[in-house]
Amino acid sequence: MTTAIHPTKTESALEAERCLRMYRRMLMIRLFEENVNDLYTRALMPGLAHLYIGEEAIAVGVCEALTQDDYITSTHRGHGHCVAKGAALDRMFAELLGKEAGYCKGKGGSMHIADPDTGNLGANAIVGGSAGIATGAAFAAKRLGNGRVCVCFFGEGALGQGVLYEVMNMAALWKLPVIYLCENNMYNEYTHYSETTAGDILTRAAGFGLPGEAIDGQDVRAVYAAAKKFIDRARAGEGPAFLLANTYRFFGHHVGDVSRDYYRAKQEEQTWKSQRDPIQLFSTYLVAQNLADQARFDEIYAEVKAEVDRAVQFAVAAPYPSADKVDQDVYA
Amino acid sequence: MPETITATREITLGEAVREALAEEMRRDSRVFVMGEDVAQAGTAFKVLSGMVDEFGSDRVLDTPISEAGFTGIAVGAAMTGMRPVVDIMFGDFVGLTMDQMVNQAAKVHYMSGGKWKVPMVMRATLGATRRSAAQHSQSLHAWFCHIPGLKVVLPSTPYDAKGLLKSAIRDENPVVFYEDKMMFRFKGPVPAEEYTIPLGVADIKREGSDITIVATSSMVHVALSAAKLLEEEDISAEVIDPRTLWPLDEKTLIDSAKKTSRVIVMDEGYGRYGAAAEIAAVIAEGAFFDLEAPVKRLCAMHVPIPFSPPLEDATVPTEKTVFEAARALLGGK
Ligand SMILES: Cc1ncc(C[n+]2csc(CCOP(=O)(O)OP(=O)(O)O)c2C)c(N)n1
Fold first, then answer.
1. Which domain holds residue B237?
2. Of A48, A56, B126, B197, which is least surrounded by CB within 10 A?
3. How far, in Å, is the centroid of ligand 1 from the Cα of A98?
4. Within an 8 Å CB–CB cutoff, is residue B77 touching chain A?
């Protein structure tokens, strides 16, 4: 086997593969979200959606460190987590448009996509609402001895919810394989987090004995490395951890939030978009490392765009559920 | 026909609950109990005494005083292969669990298009007259009845408690199971052999022809005492216990109302927008043209439950209030 003869070469080949896989996923989320915005603007999507653009490196870096069987719980800003965990884009778009072919037969929509096949326990439209579920999944994994880990994604707004601290306490007491992954994009909706969050965030977790780290949420390699370390640790039975990924959402709180001057400056947005774009930063790294060149990026872009376009077409053409499905699935 | 129980053995309602849990835990290794003081203490009401000795502290699991947190953990554990039974010491504390029950447990199945399910049970208590005042005496079961996706069970006898709890644990949905805290020592016949009672089947606790009294939980016994008083006046009262408020055995209720043409509905929850109001509406819709009088509700008085015994006693329907209401409905017969 090559691994035995050229271990370093194989490792670097694996690393190169991983990098390109992560690049592709990040781009996939970006194009997915651009299309969501487009569908909204063209009045093809009912309701609203919360875009993940600017935060792609977090979901992708974390999910790269998970297996297909591992669990995640997600948030109202959940498309990125869902794509990163391996969901099919056509069924996601179909769900966003309320179509029968969607992941939840159109009953969930943007804020509730769930998919047992990829371990996605569901997005949650209650801020902090999935903290219990994530911890419970880790509890079951430990009891059943199936080696699974659960990552609980939440925004910094969820730091205001008491239930988060209740379950962190129990996760620490019972050494559950769960990672609390706080995506701090600095705004709880339209309010800067400094107005809502006292003290030091990591210290809160440390109070329960949870190890933690602050990570640059725009650097997919840093996210992956930290996630891998704590996920492996949890899988080895050493208990939960808390990761604080610092990031920024490039657009509105939701697709309809277009005039944002009253809560954040255009200049701030501009700086993040031009200097802290996770895809841009990663492509610069890949070129510098000779892992890819513009031609490769163009190729990936064309492939991803074709996949996203196909998915959108599928969803737009897909039929709505018939109204008589409305009272199905209330009880199992 | 009233369900006939052929058992010589008598056990308490608390013992019936414990037997049901223990049998289900022996039968299915995924079943476990979690809550405050459930292990060595066997709960504040001692209902689970001794269970930790058989099943260990992993399956009879003491939690911090975090109702929302451990209920949420139960939801997630239920979704991923376990069958949790959470213990809420006093039903008044369910307020703390509401988001987990209403926005999570109840909706996961529907929101996911039927993909995830939440087979969990929440055991909680109801009932006043324990002199425990306003935050330890409420009967808040109607809150859960309002929510699609949840099932709600209110047994009135040890026999029903055991059979229904076993079914609740085997159910694929979140079920809220209410025990009257004043009834844990109430005795009744329970067969030693295994049995279950399906959710959604009412039981006619006493047959009668002049008036129907629908009653839940401990109110069933108040209704049965009242029926005896009425019998002395030559009034034949039928007493029906729906046993589960959702699913609700509407047919049995409506059929009885059609037969007797007069109905009282008793429930220890609040009357306004309560369980009794729903049952009254079901009967009014289903038996209107057979009714001789409006359906009468007898429920907890609409006040916070007071501490002082004469005040507290005044808040709960008694056999006397039922007796008088029945006579009034029968036009002073
Ligand atoms: C319990 C609850 N309260 C309020 C809301 C309304 N709400 C939706 S998103 C949001 C802000 C959430 O901020 P954060 O958790 O930081 O996530 P972000 O939107 O920044 O990704 C609020 C207040 C809600 N969905 N749930």
1. 203-329
2. A48
3. 22
4. yes
Both B152 and B220 in a single domain?
no
pTM over 0.80: yes
Cis preceding linkage at A278, omega within 30: no
Both B17 and B142 in one domain: the answer is yes
Are both B219 and B292 inside the same structural domain? Answer: yes
DSSP, collapsed to helix, strand or coil, labels residue A150 as strand
Helix axes A7-41, A56-64, angle to 10 degrees: 140
Given ligand 1 and candidates A189, A193, A257, A263, which is best to mutate, with the most ligand atoms within 8 Å of its CB? A189
Angle at the Cα of B178 (from B277 to B203), degrees rounded to 5? 65
- The full set of domains in chain A, from first to last, is 14-258+267-316 (3.40.50.970)
Banded model confidence at residue A2, pLDDT cuts 50, 70, 90: very low
My answer on whether B280 and B303 are in the same domain is yes
Whether the per-residue pLDDT at B67 is higher than 70: the answer is: yes
pLDDT at A1 over 70: no
**Are residues B101 and B234 located together in one domain of the fold?**
no
Considering the domain architecture, whether residues B93 and B178 belong to the same structural domain is answered as yes
Q: Is residue A159 lining ligand 1, measured as CB closer than 6 Å?
A: no
Give the other-Cβ count within 10 Å of B300's Cβ: 24
Q: Are strands B10-12 and B187-189 parallel, antiparallel or unpaired?
A: antiparallel
Residue whose Cα lies nearest atom 22 of ligand 1: it is A189
Helix locations, A50-178, DSSP H:
56-64, 79-84, 89-96, 131-144, 162-173
User: Which of B161, B191, B221 is the last residue in one of the domains?
Assistant: B191
Q: Which residues of A touch B95 (CB under 8 A)?
A: none
A130 Cβ below 6 A of ligand 1: no
Same domain, B173 and B42: yes
Chain B segment 214-273 residues within 8 A of A by beta carbon are: none
- Domain annotation covers residue B2: no
Give the residue from A256, A210, A235, A223 showing the smallest Cα distance to A80: A223
Q: What value of ipTM does the predicted structure carry?
A: 0.95
Number of domains in chain B: 2
- For A243-298, write each residue's pLDDT tens digit: 999 999 999 999 999 999 999 999 999 999 999 999 999 999 999 999 999 999 99
CA distance B215 to B269: 11
Q: Chain B residue closest to A148 (CA)?
A: B80
Question: Is residue B253 assigned to a domain?
Answer: yes
- B131-140 tens-digit pLDDT: 999 999 999 9
Whether B197 maps to a domain, the answer reads no
Tell whether B110 is covered by a domain.
Answer: yes
* Packing angle of the helix pair A7-41, A89-96 (nearest 10 deg): 20
Q: Same domain for B165 and B223? A: no
Q: Name the pLDDT band for B197 (thresholds 50, 70, 90).
A: very high
Q: Which of B307, B1, B259, B263 is nearest to B131 (CA)?
A: B307
